[in-house]
Amino acid sequence: MNLNLLKIGFIISGISFFAFTSSAFAGLEEAVTAMEKGDYKTALLEAKPLAEQDDPKAQYILGVIYFEGNAVSQDNKEAARWFRKSAEQGLSSAQFNLSNMYRKGQGVPLNLEESFKWAFLSAKQGDYESQYIVGISYFTGLGVPENYVEAYAWLSVASANGYVNATEGRDTVASRLTSDQLKEAQKLSKNYFDAWRR
Predict the structure, then answer these.
(1) For 86-114, what is each residue's pLDDT tens digit?
(2) Given CB 3.0 to 4.6 Å as the disulfide criterion, which of 7, 25, 40, 155 pairs with 170?
(3) Distance CA 67, CA 79 (A)
(4) Considering only CA atoms, which of 107, 128, 110, 106 is closest in space to residue 119?
């Protein structure tokens, strides 16, 4: 279950940027606080009504609860359903988790193209783990046609954004590039970093 699902801090840092009614705001804030304290029953009770009203952060919280089996029976299909609802509204953490579920066939059919699609959407929002997945996907040709220039660029961005393993991957890709390809990849890396830094 190594999906790094508890990216809950984003909810607290971004909560003030969204327009909520006072009761919806309180419900989401209560759900986040409960998650942080390990009180998953309260988190479920607070998040579920908001999730059913299409709040992407509440949907994400339900995805985490169902994936981990906290306060409910563990259910990957239900987790994927809630992550998809949240991901379709653009929540990067949900896109990342849905990508991982497709890559591992957890709650959804194994589908590397879908995995890449969701990782790419999250990567473009600055998620360095997703940037790493995109780079590795281009390097290996899993879910997307193999492309070493793109692999180098995405792994460079992930590395610059703080993903430690990306540096070694980028250097491995660099050893397979011609000098012209390396120049192209470095230019692309700068463009991507400027567009999609954390």
Answers:
(1) 999 999 999 999 999 999 999 999 999 99
(2) 155
(3) 5
(4) 128
Domain endpoint, select from 52, 80, 110 = 110
Structure tokens given for 169? 């991957």
Beta-strand ranges (E) seen in the chain are none
How many angstroms separate the CA atoms of 106 and 101, rounded? Answer: 5
Which amino acid, 2?
Answer: N
pLDDT tens-place string over residues 41-76: 999 999 999 999 999 999 999 999 999 999 999 999
Calpha distance 74→67 (Å, rounded): 6
CA–CA separation, 37 and 172 (whole Å): 42
Residue 98 and residue 171 in one domain:
no
What lies within 8 Å, CB to CB, of 6 at 6+ separation is 35, 64
SS3 105: coil
Our count of domains for the chain comes to 2
Q: Look at residues 110, 131, 157 and tell me which one is the last residue of a structural domain.
A: 110
Whether residue 120 is found in the same domain as residue 94: no
Here the tokens at position 112 are 């590397």
Domain extent at residue 149: 115-198
Is 104 in the same domain as 119?
no
Between CA 56 and CA 45 the distance in angstroms is: 16
